[in-house]
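Pilot study result, target chain (314 residues):
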Amino acid sequence: MKTLIAAVLAATAGASFAAAPTAALNHDPATYRNLAQKAEADYKAAVAKCNSMSGHDKSVCTAEAKAARAHAEADALAKYNSTPAGRQKSLTRVAEADYAAAKARCEGKNAAEKDECLNNAKSARDTALADAKAQSQASASAVERCVQAGGNATTGCVVGKPSPVVANAAATGAEVADRTEIAAEKAAEKTRVAAHNAAETTKELANNAAEKTKQVASTAAQKTENAMEKAGEKTREATETARVAANDTAITSKVKADLATEPDLKSLSIHVKTENGVVMLSGFVDSKDEADRAIKVARSVEGVTSVKSAIKVK
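Predicted structure:
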């Protein structure tokens, strides 16, 4: 029966659990709607298979189908229509759906095992909810820094033009230089007409004024260039931070989904966290074989650079 349930869950999840693309924060609502509709269709197909079962097996199968749908929708949102608030909401739905599936599986155990099972399920849900909140806050902070640096949040925080402040600074510097140069020329002309004997002195003064004007214009231009470079660097850093956070979120979701489909593996007892492509596993399992299988599953996910395991055998 476990094999049949796993097969139903795998069919429901399908290819929609693929790792996030390199270009994170890709705003594509149309593709997102298509993937969400596919997730719903896969869910209905899975429920139809579940309806051929009865009793506890049917309850578990239906709950796992709902969890698979939540994972698929969260994965699509992270890839194509992601905002910090939307990502937290979708990850929260995943955590609650996984918890409901775990509780359904716990119902088939005896009293002592059931209590432990429910406690583990609740702990896993609490950890997942905390992770969702932390990831949302990190993404929101990264996008905010990007926007403050002059980026556009709806296009992945890529700066297409200098910010209005920087552009105005450049225009003002050029205008000051032009006006100063014109004033110097008029003053020199009036001096030559009024006092021919002071011509050489006037030329010297005009030259000094022109040199100072050039220095002021050069300083203004240099400051403007430095400001634009700093704004661009901050934007690139913020964009990279947001991209890494989105990729890590997708990897974590994919690892959790693959662990959930692994036969005879208590995936809810295993906590998953990803930082810069490095997957960290923790929790408790019944045997070393389960720990080794969890590590193997994590390593097989696209985008994972390495796996660190703190899983303990009971």
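One observation from the pilot: The chain is about 70% helix and 5% strand. A full batch analysis is planned for the follow-on phase.
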